[in-house]
Amino acid sequence: MRRLWRWLIPLAVLPVLALLAYGFRVDPRDIPSPLIGRPAPAFGLTTFEGTPLSLAAHRGKVVVLNFWASWCQPACYEEAPVLERNWREYRDRGVVVVGVDIQDRREAAEKFVREFGLTFPNAQDLTGAVSVDYGVYGVPETFFLDRQGRIRVKHVGAVTDAVFRANVDRLLAEPGSP
Asked: Which terminus has fewer CB within 10 Å in the chain: N or C?
């Protein structure tokens, strides 16, 4: 009996080690979101300026929904100027960029917004409910929504000019009435 236990314990550890080895090989960017093609979860937040922010208010526009945090370095720091630059370029074409700060201190988040001169709406997800509804597991993550409010693309990692433009241009080219 004692000999049997001596072999069972190492054998029981093998499947766990195999699962861990597999998990370390998987790139989280390759994990598809089950939300693609579905209506984006509705939310209501308050911007850092104190104005209400809801996804429903932007129906009929292409929405770039970015989850970020001030402690997210370097990725959030790399993408902030990209988001601001493209927001300024595309906002008159029916595109809105919305930033959702998660797991952050308000003072640090406000400093981040000021540091990068972000003019697009930004709000804190104080309860974490919005990030949970979107299945966010890290920052930055960005969702591209079509004019009907459906999630069409989920991008994990810093958004570049090329990623922003390719997704937004494709969504703008689609027929647009909600």
From this structure: N
Which parts of the chain have pLDDT scores under 70?
1-31, 176-178
Instruction: Flag whether the pTM goes above 0.90.
Output: no
| Residues whose CB falls within 8 Å of the CB of residue 78, separated by 6 or more in sequence, listed in order | 158
Name all domains of the chain by residue range, CATH numbers in brackets: 33-173 (3.40.30.10)
Identify which of 122, 63, 114 has the alpha carbon closest to the alpha carbon of residue 91.
Answer: 63
> Which pLDDT does position 178 carry in this prediction?
47
Q: DSSP 3-state helix, strand, coil percentages of the chain (rounded to 5)?
A: 45, 20, 35
Residue written as tokens 């370029």? Answer: 89
Count of CA atoms in the C-beta half-sphere (13 A) of 85: 11
What ranges make up the beta strands (E) of 42-131? 44-46, 52-54, 62-68, 95-101, 122-124
Q: How much is the pLDDT for 62?
A: 98
